[in-house]
Specification:
CATH class of the largest domain: Alpha Beta
Structural class: alpha+beta
Order of helices and strands: HEEHHEEEHEEEHH
Shape: rod-shaped
Radius of gyration: 31 Å
Distance between the termini: 22 Å
Helix content: 40-55%
CATH architecture of the largest domain: 2-Layer Sandwich
Number of helices: 6
Number of domains: 2
Strand content: 5-15%
CATH topology of the largest domain: Beta-Lactamase
Largest sheet: 6 strands, antiparallel
Number of strands: 8
Amino acid sequence: MLINARLPLPGRVRLSLRTILLVVMLTILTLPLLGLYFFRIYENELVRQTELELIAQSAVLSATYRQFARRIHPDINHFGYIIHDSPLLPDSGRSYVNKAQEGSRYTPITPTLDLVNQIQSPRPDAQAATTHIDAFSKRIALEMAAVIRDTQTIMLSGIRILDMNGIVVAGREESGLSLAHIEEVQQALHGQYASTIRQRISDEPPPPLYSISRGTNIRVFSAFPVIEGNRLIAVIYLSRTPKNIIKHLYLVQDKIYVATVTLLLVAVLLVLFVSSSISRPIRELIEQTQRVTRGEQTQIEPIK
């Protein structure tokens, strides 16, 4: 039985009952806190994974838009407007990553979103445009309609293509309306990639089990400038809800089983520690008492 287990301590260290109980209680308190800490880190990684997916989609859609623009516009060098400050400009000497090779033609964008930062309010509604839709941008968007539809079918992202003035030229909704007043879109219109986490508005309440996850109430938005040469010609505006952590943990349940077994082993070791530290002295005291009763021992000796 576990109550008779012996756990030899180096140098016969004797811990007070208060110390033993303190260690046990702190361990019991730490285990769920570690689980919660892991839960939040894992959820944050899902948010960054979602942003990375949006960056990848934006890069492909941006390249596709530029190809159609070169084919449709008669003078691509005068399409859009000039920007002077963007890491996406050729030979800009700037980068979105900390360690970028000087003179490299690559301009990688890394995810930067973090649930630690304040979550923004829901996305503002589109407004009436104060300028007309650019005709060439509309033609390009029509040519890309099949590409956008197929991408959305697979990736489940909300896709909006904006012209150089921030007016929606492609998307299931809001076509012809302006999103230029939205913060991340404003940054993209100045040639800067921008992303943010916003509160998600849903008509249906989340299941009770999912309420512990922040991922059910947020949505990731990214605004990617489309730059041809040194001219901004469009903005790719995407959004997506991060994967739900409960569903994602179900997909990696094998790893969860390993973590569960590890916690059980910690609990067993904790029981052995308590059994050895508390039960052994009590058992020895009982044995001495019985020997004194039988006359085999004259007095009770200190427990070692």
